[in-house]
Amino acid sequence: MEAAGKGILGRISGGKEPRTLEHIEHLLIEPTFGCKMQCRQCGSAPIPEHQAFLEVKTLRKTLDKLQARGLSLSAPSFPSWPSSVIYGLHGEPLANPGLHKITRELRERFPRAKAVAFWGLGGVPSAEKLAERTKGLDLLLLSVDGQHWGGKYLEMKRNGKLPETKKTEAVDGEIRKLIKWAWSAAAENNFRVEFNVVGGERQKRQMLPLIESASPGRNAVVHTLEREPRGSGKGHPPLPGHANIYHDGTHAASPSPGAYLVRTG
Ligand code: SF4
């Protein structure tokens, strides 16, 4: 299967990856390709429901190649913005059953980089699995907004978990449960939990009561982001000097800080 990023990034650039990768400050990793949530507004759409996972042995091979070209994540441009490995791209990162092994590998190789994961509220069967998969993270960013609320609604409907009445309450209840799982995984693994709300201040006002009711006694940090068009493929902010590693080990790197990615190998 072709990685989604391959086509998208190939069209953007068409060039070749730089020979040295000393300027790379951030790694975007795709632990999972595909997502069972199937949100209507997904920035990575069309995205398959079937999932393929990055394996540690694949990651090792790719990192060996990239580190031989100078990748070290040791020189961030802004002291207040440390180097990082970020889990996201074209699928639900937390659905990968071996995510904690991926994090362990990355932490051993890049001890100064922060580990950050996006969670779109799908792909995790239990609180125990969430606690296992989030081991080693510094920050878990939960997407709690109308888009993911709608995705959860559709997922529950497909799985026969949506009741005949009080559907809204059922979806709210499910999301509240997942937020609580995140807080207890954070307490166990010592990472921060923050919330992303796509759609601006209005969305934030709508979602805050849901977030706060699942976060008693916590000071929930909530970020608002503007909506990107469905299928835009830009499900992450622009980063200075970054490289992507896809679930199948293919990769792309920016030729200089702030430039577009080039070549997927
Ligand atoms: S959870 Fe995220 S990746 Fe999955 S369909 Fe929804 S927006 Fe797309």
Descriptive notes:
- The chain is α/β, with parallel strands linked by helices.
- The protein has one domain (4-13, 20-253): TIM Barrel (Alpha-Beta Barrel).
- The chain contains seven helices and ten strands.
- The protein has helices at 4-12, 56-68, 99-109, 127-133, 146-158, 167-189, 200-213, and strands at 26-29, 32-33, 52-53, 84-87, 114-119, 139-143, 192-198, 221-225, 242-245, 251-253.
- It has an eight-stranded mixed sheet. A two-stranded antiparallel sheet has the order 2-3.
- Helix 4 (127-133) packs across helix 6 and helix 5 packs across helix 6 (167-189).
- The longest helix has 23 residues, at 167-189.
- It binds iron/sulfur cluster.
- Iron/sulfur cluster binds next to helix 5.
Gap from first CA to last CA: 14 Å
Largest sheet: 8 strands, mixed
User: What's the total count of β strands?
Assistant: 10
Q: Briefly note the CATH topology name.
A: TIM Barrel
Give the overall form: globular
Percentage of residues in helical conformation:
25-40%
Helix count, per DSSP? 7
Radius of gyration: 18 Å
Helix and strand run: HEEEHEHEHEHHEHEEE
Main sheet: strand order: 8-7-6-5-4-1-9-10
The CATH architecture? Alpha-Beta Barrel
Broad structural category: alpha/beta
Instruction: Give the rounded overall mean pLDDT.
Output: 87
Overall number of structural domains = 1
Stretches where pLDDT is under 50 for at least 5 consecutive residues are 1-14
CATH class: Alpha Beta
Associated small molecules: iron/sulfur cluster
